[in-house]
Specification:
The chain is built from 1 helix and 6 strands. By secondary structure, it is mainly beta. The strands form 2 sheets. The protein has a 4-stranded antiparallel sheet with strand order 1-2-3-4, with no helix packed on it.
């Protein structure tokens, strides 16, 4: 997690790319990358460009996943969701699943 006065981020996953620009107070959380997946959660107060121009407050999150690596995408935001995700992953027995785990931040 980082708190910045301004920021510009570029996230690359294989051939997929996402770029954003934030000016003001910015908090960025990125769970550990997992195979063909990158996840980002951003809260900002100021102005920027994130799928369009914005001024004021902005909370956004996005996940970029490589379909060749991720047959199932699991986003975990709370410990309760982590317990449920663990059961789902055990039942999949080796299938290709990608996990974005925000509980460690």
């Amino acid at each position: 997690m980082a708190v910045l006065l301004s920021g510009c981020s570029t996230v690359d996953v294989g051939s997929q790319r996402s770029s954003q620009l934030y000016l003001g107070l910015v908090r960025v959380i990125m769970p550990e990358p997992h195979k063909g997946l990158a996840a980002v959660d951003v809260k900002a107060l100021g102005l920027g460009w994130d799928q369009g121009v914005w001024v004021g407050g902005r909370h956004g999150n996005w996940v970029i996943a490589d379909p060749a690596e991720c047959q199932l995408l699991i986003v975990i935001r709370t410990p309760a969701q982590a317990a449920n995700a663990a059961r789902v992953l055990r039942s999949m027995e080796g299938k290709q699943a990608c996990v974005a785990d925000y509980t460690k931040h």
